[in-house]
Amino acid sequence: MKLSIAAVIAFAATSALALSIPYKQSAVYAREMYERDSGEGALESFEKRTRVKHDPAGQVNTGGYATYFYQKGNPGACGTVHSDDDLIAAIDSTRYGSALCGKQVKITNPSNGKSVVVKVADNCPTCRNADSIDLSVAAFKNIADTSQGIVGINWVFV
User: Where is the RlpA-like protein double-psi beta-barrel domain (predicted)?
Assistant: First the structure.
């Protein structure tokens, strides 16, 4: 089933209102900021962000950053609700596609050598670059203290 861009925006806007999500945390706001910063039209931007980019297992991605986010009972882009204790990740929107849902990623903090294997469960429209990943609280705690907020990472699909 194909949805028009207007339908996607309407759904995201009504979902944000229904869940009492502040506008600045809604999918619509994230999309508007992405389009503003990228200078692309809505449809072109949406299609570009939802296209799957294949990353072969074993190819190490460097130069990214890990941050963490609270689940708050909301489903991720893959459609599943997770807890903060689940080892999950949100992949940068330029890489994300539903074919990546459930794929495993090994993330390493090169400053301390700690690693964690997580499952892709969401997309991350606010990630700094294509090699950045947003982690659940539990996943982030496996590689760094949450007081750090953001750490450099290397990662690979496994």
Answer: 63-154
